[in-house]
Amino acid sequence: MSTSVNTSALAIQRDLGEELRRLRLEAGFKTQTAAAKPLKCSQNKISYVESGKRWPDEALLKRMLKVYGLSESKSAEIRATIRTGKSIERSWWDEPRYRDLIAGGLGKIFPLEDGAAKIWNHSGTFIPGLLQTEGYIQALAAFGQRDESALHRELFVEMRLRRQHILTRTHPVLMTGMFLESALRPVVGGREVMREQLQHLQEMAHKPNITLRVVPFSAGSAAAVGSPFTLFEFPGAHNKAAVLREMSRGDDDTHSAAEVRRMRRRFNDLAEHALGPGETIGLIEEIEKAL
């Protein structure tokens, strides 16, 4: 297990969890429940660590190293991995001023996006969040969050814009964005705001790491499937894929292989009815010129 490949704390934490799972199985504990008694902890605690959702505390780590019968060199490697992960600067979404906005599951997408190598996003009747302009986001917040404070809406816009850094960083995410034609037609925020949004989509679609596909009205039933979801693929041989479904009361994410396969089939089914990248840019340009 290398400690130098991934620079994301989330990815390192996930790698560590997968490695500890492998070591448990090698030690003869076929289930987390079987390992819980000698480790003197609950099965849930082992699950959280092996799924990469938390670091093992010092007491649990010591017991794992002993119960799994690890050598001094292997134990040192695992400790080095944990130190590396914990030394990474706190992620921007953990800043205190964002705390209220990400409560209740609404912040699950940030670490997934940040740690991913590839993203497949179906945003339904909205422009993909990673490609929304400031004016477009402000218009959505002004209508959808009118009962919230001005500060809440301001921070919401700020967070959505900060997410987009993953598309332009040194090693950018490879993104395939798919959305319905009905996402392009509403004049969100007025003509100037929507024109700027459509122009931005055209500009981003020409970047080598971004592919856009539109499901046109002519696709029939496929053009009515508006429930947003995102598939994530992470770097590293041991990193599992994940899927996140956006819901009104918080996002739901899972690393279940069966669910990932199901949603990947859903994405591929929709892609069969979508315009190609060139045709998509042409449609966006046509709608923009008609404004």
Describe the protein.
The structure is a single chain. 48% of the residues lie in helices and 10% in strands. Helix 8 packs antiparallel against helix 9. The chain has a six-stranded mixed sheet, with helices on both faces. With 291 residues, it is α/β, with parallel strands linked by helices. Strand 2, helix 10 and strand 3 (210-215) form a beta-alpha-beta unit. It has two domains: 9-87, Orthogonal Bundle (434 Repressor (Amino-terminal Domain)); 92-290, Endonuclease, Chain A (2-Layer Sandwich), CATH 3.30.870. The longest helix has 18 residues, at 9-26. It is elongated. It is built from twelve helices and six strands. The chain has helices at 9-26, 32-39, 43-50, 58-67, 72-87, 99-102, 109-115, 134-144, 150-163, 191-205, 257-271, 277-290; strands at residues 118-122, 174-180, 210-215, 229-233, 242-245, 252-254.
Task: Give a short synopsis of this structure.
The protein is built from twelve helices and six strands.
Keywords:
Endonuclease, Chain A; disordered N terminus; 434 Repressor (Amino-terminal Domain); alpha/beta; 291 residues; 48% helix; elongated; six-stranded mixed sheet
Tell me how many strands there are: 6
Number of separate domains: 2
CATH C-level class of the largest domain is Alpha Beta
Supply the CATH architecture of the largest domain. 2-Layer Sandwich
How far apart are the first and last residues' alpha carbons, in Å?
54 Å
Rounded to the nearest angstrom, the radius of gyration is 22 Å
Q: Which structural class fits the helix and strand makeup?
A: alpha/beta
* CATH topology (level 3) name of the largest domain: Endonuclease, Chain A
**Order of strands across the widest beta sheet?**
3-2-1-4-5-6
Oligomeric composition of the shown chains:
single chain
InterPro entries: Cro/C1-type_HTH (IPR001387), DUF5753 (IPR043917), Lambda_DNA-bd_dom_sf (IPR010982)
GO molecular function, one term: DNA binding
Pfam families: DUF5753, HTH_31
Protein name: Xre family transcriptional regulator
